[in-house]
Amino acid sequence: MIDWSFNPLLALVVGLVVAEAGIFATTVYLHRGLTHRALTVHPALALPLRIFLWMATGMRPREWAAVHRRHHAATDTVDDPHSPAILGFWRVQLANAALYRRIARDGETVTKYAKDLPPDRLDRWFFDHAFLGLGIGVTLVCLVLGPLTGLLASVIHAVGYLGLSGAVNAVGHTVGKRPHENSATNTNALALITAGEGLHNNHHAEPTSARFAFRWQEIDPGWWVVRVLGLLRLAQVRHEDGRLRADRPTASSSTRTGAVSAR
Ligand SMILES: [Zn+2]
Ligand SMILES: [Zn+2]
Fold it and tell me: Domain boundaries in the chain?
């Protein structure tokens, strides 16, 4: 029996919770883990995260990693896939996913920047098929909440996830503090709702640090999750050097950024 009742408040809560879960999975697993190798995620957790990201975002991890490594290697130049300084703030904020997709399918970015992340059998069978994953995700939500509430929750999730991801790249290179010598910015309010990604200036200064907060007043919820996963032995931090380097001169940091992150 299909539940045709409509509960917009429930849709709002579920949509926002799933969007935030996607943001946490993106920063911990895709960004700090796969892309920068700042931490290693245990296979017992990596597989459910791959399945969740497939159903919630449809993204291919190796493509996300390649586009993001290219962003670090060519920050705010014409080769940057999503620079608000080059493409304009609103194009990056609103069309972030389209920019990712276009660069990821250009035939060279993934080959050059994601050599270490070749597709495995699960990718070929399941995870490379974005619409299959998204379709399963939306269907599951509709089965649990009913089709009307489920569809609204899916739309709220998509708007929330895409909006927050776009803000990291648009706001995170436009508005906020620049304690280190790079073009990215730190914004605590953005960091609070993006699992720490809003500390983007810190991140560009130390791309291989699993911790994005370098000072006591900076908020990095993604790091709190990493710490808990570490205690549960589901993640192992490889580099956590932000606090040690927070007060060091920044010229060497910005020089190091390109070399390390463009691996
Ligand atoms: Zn950036
Ligand atoms: Zn990064």
Answer: 8-261
